[in-house]
Every structure is written in C-alpha cells, then in structure tokens.
Amino acid sequence: MWYNNILETIGNTPLVKLNKVTDGIKATVLAKIETSNPGNSIKDRMALKMIEDAEKAGLLKPGGTIIEGTSGNTGMGLAIAAVIKGYKCIFTTTDKQSKEKVDALRAFGAEVIVCPTNVDPEDPRSYYSVSSRLQREVPNSWKANQYDNLSNSMANYEQTGPEIWQQTNGKVTHLVAGVGTGGTLSGAGKYLKEQNPNIKIWGIDTYGSVFKKYKETGIFDKNEIYPYITEGIGEDFLPQNVDFSVIDHFEKVTDKDAALMTREIARKEGIFAGNSCGSVVAGLLQMKDQLKEGDLVVVIFHDHGTRYLGKMYNDDWLRERGFLKDEKLTARSILHNRDNQEIVTIDSDKSVLEAINTIKSLNISQLPVTQQGMVVGKITETDILNSLLENPAAKSYKISQVMTKPFPFVDINTSIEKISSLISKDNTAVLLEYENGKMEIITQFDIISAMSV
C-alpha cells in the first residue's frame, strides 16, 4: 500500500504510555504523538481542513496566496498543503518564536515576516494586524485565520476526538492539551463529551495569558497579560475556537516548569517533544491529586523538539534565563571564586600615553574604554604596540583614535563554555553589567583560576 501524496498521511497518530515523567500520578497517562504527522505537529489536521473548506466555499482559488499569522506549526501545515495544491504562502510570526520554526517555513518556500511580540493584537505592527493588512493588499489571497476559523476545531472534532475514543476503547476519562487557538481541545473535547459527558477536559494555560481567569470569572482582565516565553499556548485575546463550555478547567504553568519538563520528556521517555508538551505534563503533575487509579488520561503532544533546539534544548539559553541550576561554572561562579576587583575603565578622550601609564601602574593588560559612562571600545597592550609601531607619535593620540571594538557582554548566568568561546586573540576578556549599572570584567586568567579550583 502507498499514499498518493504526503497529505494522506495526516492523522491516525499513535498513543504511547508515559512511564517516568508521570511518576506519582495514580492514573494511566497516554500521550497522543502528533509529531508523527508530516509537519510534525497536530496543526497539520486543521491546516488541511481549513484549506479544503475554503476551496469548497470558493474563498481560495487556484494559484492563490495563503496568508496567516502563525507561531510556526500551523504555518508548516499550511505550507505543506500549499506545495501539494499549488498555492503560495505568506506568514507573519513573532520574534518570540524559535529560529528553527521560521527556517522550517522558509524551507517549504513560504515568505515569513517576523513581527514584535510585545504589542497589542490591535497594534498595526502585531503579527495579527500585519497578516490582515496583507490579505487586503495581496490579490487573490485568503487568510486562514486559525484563531476564529471554526474549521480548526471541526478538524479535531472529526479526527482527533474519534481517534482517541477508538484507541482507548471508550475508556478515556481525561483529555489534557495546551490551549492557544483552542481548536485541538475544544474540537476533540466536544466529540469526547458527546460520547461520555463525564470525561474531563483540562486546558493548559501559561502565566501572561487571559484564559484561566476568563474561564473562572467571565472577566477579560488585561492585567493578566504580560510577555512570556512558552510557545504555542496562551493568548492575550479570546479566539472563537476556544469553547469555554467544553473546557472544564484551565491550569497555568510557568515558563521555567514548561521548559525543564520539555527536556525531561526527551531524557526519561525518549520522546522528542516540543515546548507545549512540557507545559502539558507539568500542568498534569500539578493536578495529580485530582486523579485516581483506574483513570485513563490522554495528553496531546502537539509538536516536535527539533523546533526548540536553540531554546529549551540549549543549556546556555536556559541558564541565561535562570532556568537551570548553577551546576556548571558560570560567570557568577567565576566572580565568586576570585577576589573582589574594582573594574578600571578609561575615557576615550584620554591619551594613549595615559592608557600606557594606567596599564603599567595597575599591572593589567587591557582597559574598557568609555564615553559619557558608556562602554564604546577597548584598548589593550597589543592595540598600543601596533599603534606605536606604525607611528611612534601615537602615544599623544586620543584613545578613541586607536581603540578597538568593545569586549563582548555576558549575563551573570552565562556558562564558562560560552564565555570561553567569546575569548580570542581579539577579545581577551568579557564584560558583565548588573541591573544597577555596576560592571565586572572577566579575563582569561579568571577563567583558568575558576577551572583550577
């Protein structure tokens, strides 16, 4: 047997029992592995459904352009379908999304426009607004509008829900998924509740999103909205695909817990899952006291880990955000292991001779150069020597005439490996600036000293 094209492979994804990350949960927990779809996410289902429904309604015509605001996964589903069906794609996304997601969309020939994250949906710069403007401007175009296009939830009502019911022989007691557009949980949840009204539908939300408070109070509270790192779930508005009557409860999960659990799933279950999958398992663990033996929980594993290699699966990225414990040497531990040192800088208007005298008197080899209190460059023994060899009179020059690029800046949580990679013959040190404006310099010698403790 073979398939006529890749779109025919969408759906019928496996259910896999989780064993280690769910330790402490009395219920049986099964993950629906949506990464086995051709675009490696559950969004393939609704992307194809939205396109097919638009074709039937005459909204998407041959040779047309598909436009959408996407965090990456819906765009991938739309892009794959567009390749097969002969459409162009223009996607808008936010600068919060991983580089891997953007690169993947471009790999399928899509044009991707990156927009700022921290603006209101109504702001003309937001990825919602830019996609709407493009739909008005681009001839023969159609905007998928995954948030309010009810073909999204219908795809999961027609496919995901029935699959779960059949695969569990109707024994499923809980469905848990992250809520972004709301289509997955609302659609699949509606189908399952029609089969058995006692099935609990739990949505995983993130801090910075409005869903949980709105569900519990009916109040859309803008004070709940603030930037967050977790990708694919949560929103700062209410998409029409979120059916609050179907979802029984929302559980919020922190960025840190979501990121660390994402890694745990790979390391303990051998499943290379995306960021929202970490949120779902972390949220389920927070609700474990509501589960009992005999319960059969299905969690949706929405997308694949390859889209987060530069983020949740990158130790430096996690450490810079304080998500990883200081198990390895970092800038913090390097500074802790050395004596207190007052950083010495020199103004760019001073002379090279003054720099020579400062370096000589303090027995140091380099100086950060400042201008009105801001670091604008550096001057090292090598810089001075090269200048004097070219022109012995250079010692009377202003430092600004001979200084070179400033030392790189690092964060207090930056790993020793990252710092070492920034050290070179051109950069013999790195700088660190605290929130209060105080600066520290970390030299090659400091790194060697810390490693030899």
How would you characterize the overall build of this protein?
The chain is α/β, with parallel strands linked by helices. It contains 16 helices and 16 strands. The strands form 4 sheets. The chain has a 6-stranded mixed beta sheet, with helices on both faces. Strands 5-4-3-6 form a 4-stranded parallel beta sheet, sandwiched between helices. A 3-stranded mixed beta sheet has the order 11-12-13.
Strand content: 15-25%
- Give the radius of gyration: 27 Å
Shape: elongated
SS summary, helix count: 16
The total count of strands amounts to 16
The major β-sheet equals: 6 strands, mixed
Quaternary form: single chain
Q: Into which percent range does the helicity of residues fall?
A: 25-40%
Q: TL;DR of this structure?
A:
This protein is α/β, with parallel strands linked by helices and 453 residues long. 36% of the residues lie in helices and 17% in strands. The longest helix has 17 residues, at 151-167.
